[in-house]
Structure formats: C-alpha cells, structure tokens
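In response to reviewer comment 3 from the previous cycle, which asked for concrete evidence that the modeling workflow produces usable outputs, we include below a single protein chain processed end to end. The sequence was submitted unchanged, and the resulting structure tokens are shown without manual editing.
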Amino acid sequence: MTQLLAGFEPIEVDVNGIRITGRTAGTGPPVLLLHGYPQTHAMWHQIAPILAERHTVVLTDLRGYGGSAKPAAGADHAEYSKRAMATDQVAVMASLGFDNFVAVGHDRGARVVHRMCLDHPARVRRAAVLDIVPTRHVFATVDTAFAMAYEHWFFLAQPPGFPERLIGGDPEFYLRAKLAAWSAGGHTFDEEAVDQYVTHFRDPAAITASCEDYRAAATIDLDHDEASYAIGDRVTCPLLVMWGTAGFVGRHYDVAAIWQSYATDTSTTAIAAAGHFLAEEAPEATAAALAQFLQ
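The workflow returned the following structure tokens.
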C-alpha cells in the first residue's frame, strides 16, 4: 500500500490466538473503522485521513479478511459470528489503550458494530452503521427484490465447498462484479484500493472465511439477534445511521424507521446519489457526516 493511507502505521494484535491486522494514525479520541465485504480496511483510504486530523483512527481487517487470521470454522460457524468478530475488535482497542471508543462500520463491519453495541455497551461511546438494516430484519422480510439484488447472502451461505469453488475460478472477476453491482452510476473505484482487495481475496482461505461470515449470518448470528431482541436489548449509545439514496438499502427499506426498533437514540443521514460504498462513492459527504457526529 504505497500511496493509500500514507502516514498510517501498521498494527498487528494477537487476540486469543487470532491475528488482527490494520493501521492507525492521529491523536485525540479513538475511532474504530470496520470494513465490509469483499473489502479490507483500505476502503477507508479517503475517510480515515480526514478523521485523523482530530481523532486517533484505528482501521482493522475483520477476522477472515485482509491480513487478519482466517481460522477454521466449526459446524455452528461460531468462529465467524459477529459476536466473535466484535470481541476481537474490543480486544484490539483495549490493547492500544482504549477502554471505550467510537465504532463505525460499513456493511459486514456495521453488523459487527451492531453486535458490539449489544455485547459491550460500556466500550462503545457512539456508533455509526453505514448502509445496512439489522440482520434479523433482513431475514424476516426477504422478498424477490432482495433476493435478486443480494443473492450473495444465500449463495455464500451454502454448504462449504460449493461457493468457494465457483468464486475461486475467477475471484477478481467476482469481486469487481460485486463492486460494480452495488455502487451507483458506474462509479470508478481507486485502482490501488481494488488491487489490494483482489490480492487478499484471491487467497482461498479468504474466500472460505468470507463464506463463513455469511453462513454465520444465516445461523448463529440470527440466534444471537433473536435472543437479544426478545429480552429487550437495544443499542443505547448515540447511533448514526447512514445510507446511500441510490443504493438498494436506501431504495428498498425505510432505514430510519427500522433502526428505531433496534436503538434508543438514533440520528440519520442519507447520502445523495451514492450507492452502497459510501466511503468511496461519496467520501466528502460521508466524512463530513461522521465528523459532525463525532464532535
């Protein structure tokens, strides 16, 4: 990563035998940024330097992604549950000396942030989730439009071996196709960032791990989410909910209303003309909204 995230120092933290990699820069109140599928922490390359002007910014790769460890999964997929991923990230921040912090997540990272807020409420002072509605709501309301737009939720969750072999036939094509399908208006991604995504995604272990992420979503994550919701657990810290008006989430869901059922203190920002990848399609507007929320 020669130009992306220049000035950010690499970090590597061992969390109960799981290696988590990333980068950090800046001084001030800590902010953790978590990426989505099929990317790495490099997706924040336009946002992180702006936030680092006033904050200590920590970017990490979720377990299974980028340079982080890709542990073998068991039959219940617990190794890739959002509970496990959230625990990783809380431990990373503690190792850096931050007992509480702001957590910002996009896509899969946003689902990790949601679980983190429920499991570790004392750790998360504020949180932001970018372009998602809760996993529990997604599966409860699946319709034809969702199945056609987000077919990968069901494809990647198929039994081990099947999606891995098909994606492994041409992983770069698959990754680039997903970036194109979920962005708006033919957005051109930074090629250095995409090359970094592709380099990591070509690893068969990374393909398997990302499938396990989605297998967990359809099984153990749902169990955790149903249990939390049933006992009245809600996100209690201030929660910023963001989405792109041209993306599927923004067009298909009443995002603000849905999150009000899962959190007690929400604010919302819709990013005009952006698709799913807010941090790369509309970095200035996204950074401005986050900076205002962090004040």
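Residues 153 and 214 are 6 Å apart (CA to CA). We consider this sufficient to address the reviewer's concern, and the full set will be provided in the supplementary archive.
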